[in-house]
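Journal club prep — side note

Before the paper discussion, L.F. wants everyone to see what a predicted structure for a comparable chain looks like in token form. Sequence:
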Amino acid sequence: MDQLWAPWRLAYAKLQAPKQDDECFVCRGVRETADRENLIVFRSEHSVVCLNKFPYNNGHLLVCPKAHKGQLDELTEAELLDSQLVLRRMIAVLKTAVNPDGFNVGLNLGKAAGAGVPGHLHWHIVPRWNGDTNFMPIFADVKVIVQSLDSLWELLTNPG
């Protein structure tokens, strides 16, 4: 088996590890009304959509149930259906807003699976473009994100 080493990702992993006494950023965003400051771009009955503060790519979104639940079997049918409908809606919004060639959509269940916030479920939507991987992360320890979070928030909350 070949191994691909990516030691620059350690800094990201350390940033993502919440302290034991830190409040869940999703729950704080759900509770508060300052959507721009909390990077929230959409709310539905049971879900909330946040910009990822540490994006893998431009347009990286998190679709989260409003309730603080860490396992799929903890969601009600209404919460599960709502999250999937919101996923579909946000993919359509991103298609129009940033015109990607494809998407990665995923859910990390549990800390061992890579969940940065293991206590609060969230699906990742990562827009992808043909050729969006380049040499920068390998040679310069840099990931180029072509749009600020503030600019992306404006684009997704004020379409047209």
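L.F.'s comment for the group: DSSP finds five helices and five strands in the chain. Keep this in mind when we get to the figures.
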